[in-house]
Amino acid sequence: MITQNASEMAAAVAAGEITSEALTQAHLSRIAEVDEKVHAFLHVDAEGALAQARAVDVARAKGEKLSPLAGVPLALKDVMVQKGVPTTCGSKILEGWRPPYDATVVTKLKNAGVVILGKTNMDEFAMGSSTENSAYGPTHNPWDLTRIPGGSGGGSSASLAAFEAPLAIGTDTGGSIRQPAAVTGTVGVKPTYGGVSRYGLVAFSSSLDQAGPCARTVLDAALLHEIIGGHDIYDSTSIDAPVPPVVTAAKMRNVKGLRIGVVRELGGEGYQAGVLQRFNESVEVLRGLGAEIIEVSCPHFEYALPAYYLIAPSECSSNLARFDAMRFGLRVGDDRARSAEEVMNLTREAGFGPEVKRRIILGTYALSSGYYDAYYGSAQKVRTLIINDFNAAFAQVDVLISPTSPTTAFKIGEKADDPLAMYLNDIATIPVNLAGNCAMSIPCGLAPEDGLPVGLQIIAPAMADDRLYRVGGALEAAFNEAWGGPLMNKAPSLTGGVR
Amino acid sequence: MISRDDVAHLAQLARIELEASEIDHLAGQLEVILGAVARVQEVAGADVAPTSHPLPLKNVFRPDVIRPSLTPEEALSGAPASEEQRFRVPQILGEE
């Protein structure tokens, strides 16, 4: 039952074939069985999840109308607050902290009867591409436990690939939903900036951060997207417009006549051969489905990575100033003799890990007087040039496609102390965050050389998120037919036996 | 060129009491990272307008309506130390 899609699980609950409580218990058992190996979760809220599940069962018994995902379990990235449930952001500075309120996404999930199983592991404050920067140890990729599950949302993607949850919430500042989806053979969507509320999402880089849905199928992601999306008065940057028709689009399975652009700059040198092979095959599948394939050039994309590693650290150096040892979280060295500033300095030294310190210092430098124009100012200009590239591209095509990540999952430890090598993982995903439009990663096969999942990225203009689902749904259906079932059927069982 | 002293100064601005070994390690890494990201200057001409945010938003208002909010107990629930319904913090000003 845990291998079903979320939509199938919801249908079974609605039809009374299974209770949400039993479904939730099955996932809790799976977590107990495999999470020692995977380490997708930082906290499992068994009691809370079962209580939510029983509430759905009671509502159903009373004949109340259920939402399309009512009773289905979900894994929540630990960067989003849930009242009373420990939220650490993968950092020691928040160890033991229990938020006094729910994020808007959490409120929406609860209202829809989605059962929150627990909080998933992540790179500290979402800074990383491997989940190795978590202060609580790395998450392991269910396809090969010696490899990374992507990051920063590696816990969310791994929970899906390990069948510990059929749905998850991620956040994507530079690729943290899409790259983990790519390397675990799952589906991940970064909605249009402002499409999903950021209220209760612990801020890393406010002009880039975006929460979004993670699932094993395109339709499941769409159903989740529809629940969490929409305007929120508590987030002044949330867009006051209806959620694009993502569920309808996911069911269309038709790309005839759609103009699809292949981005010349996102491929070639630096990309693994097997990744390019699967990507090129996917292009031919889309052509076969009647899409018009056009090569598109986005000449400034090569400056996206450098711009991102100035803008994101700059914003983080400001956002993470709130971890000051005064109102919540860790406090170190308060002996009633030291000053507030000394306590602050000692707490931040003890509470932040190496990557977070690196980015705060880098951002402090980029924003400091004398360097501001050359670094942060120039990066902001590159942001304009990237938006212009997207505008020119979308004047010619309806969506753009590229590989999601230049490589498949690498070995844990391989790039741990080489920040630049690590940053390159996000080379194809970052332009979208800088421009604020939307993108999806879907599995497009296993790389021949290592047998690991490859992700294909679909990019659409702002508030045209439905196009992602239209292309993703059509491609997924074509792949499933060609492969004789979903790619996830080939994932290891993790228990030695039959899953 | 980013020196050891620069990193120590930046750490002070960022309120992080870095250890000497961390300063050495970071100085080398920042040098490499800054060398790579400085490329943004190649295309950032005077004729290009900067973008600070993907949405062109200005002064977003909402009606001023009273809504439920945190109780003092809830607001203080995560505080490292509290006293008389307030956050207790180490001294901020000197003796004088």
Largest sheet of chain B: 2 strands, antiparallel
- As laid out across the biggest beta sheet of chain B, the strand order is 1-2
Write the H/E string of chain B, N to C.
HHHEE
> Structurally, how many domains make up the residues of chain A?
1
Mean pLDDT of chain A: 97
CATH class of chain A equals Alpha Beta
Total helical segments of chain A: 16
Categorize the overall geometry of chain A. globular
InterPro entries (chain B): Asp/Glu-ADT_sf_sub_c (IPR036113), GatC (IPR003837)
Region (Disordered) (chain B): 71-96
Question: Layout of helices and strands, plus pairs?
Answer:
The complex is a heterodimer of chains A (499) and B (96).
Chain A: H1 6-14, H2 20-38, E1 41-44, H3 46-61, E2 73-77, H4 104-111, E3 115-120, H5 154-161, E4 167-171, H6 178-184, E5 187-190, E6 211-215, H7 218-228, H8 246-252, E7 259-263, H9 273-288, E8 292-296, H10 304-319, H11 340-351, H12 354-367, H13 373-396, E9 399-403, H14 419-423, H15 430-435, E10 438-446, E11 453-460, H16 465-483
Parallel strand pairs in A: 2-3, 2-4, 7-8, 7-9
Antiparallel strand pairs in A: 1-3, 4-6, 5-6, 5-10, 9-11, 10-11
Chain B: H1 4-13, H2 20-37, H3 72-76, E1 82-83, E2 86-87
Antiparallel strand pairs in B: 1-2
InterPro entries (chain B): Asp/Glu-ADT_sf_sub_c, GatC
Region (Disordered) (chain B): 71-96
Pfam family, one (chain B): GatC
Can you offer a commentary on this structure?
The complex is a heterodimer of chains A (499) and B (96). By secondary structure, chain A is α/β, with parallel strands linked by helices. Chain A has one domain: Amidase signature (AS) domain (Amidase signature (AS) enzymes, Alpha-Beta Complex). Chain A is 39% helix and 12% strand. Chain A has 16 helices and 11 strands. An 11-stranded mixed beta sheet of chain A has the order 1-3-2-4-6-5-10-11-9-7-8, sandwiched between helices. In chain A, a hairpin with a 6-residue loop joins β10 (438-446) and β11 (453-460). In chain A, α2 (20-38) packs antiparallel against α3 (46-61) and α10 (304-319) crosses α13. Chain A is globular. Chain B is flat, with a radius of gyration of 23 Å. The model of chain B has no long low-confidence stretch (mean pLDDT 93). Chain B is built from 3 helices and 2 strands, in the order αααββ. Chain B has a domain at 1-40: Orthogonal Bundle (Histone, subunit A). In chain B, α1 crosses α2 (20-37). Chain B has a two-stranded antiparallel ribbon. Chain B is mainly alpha-helical. At the A-B interface, α10, α11, α12 and α13 of A face α1 and α2 of B.
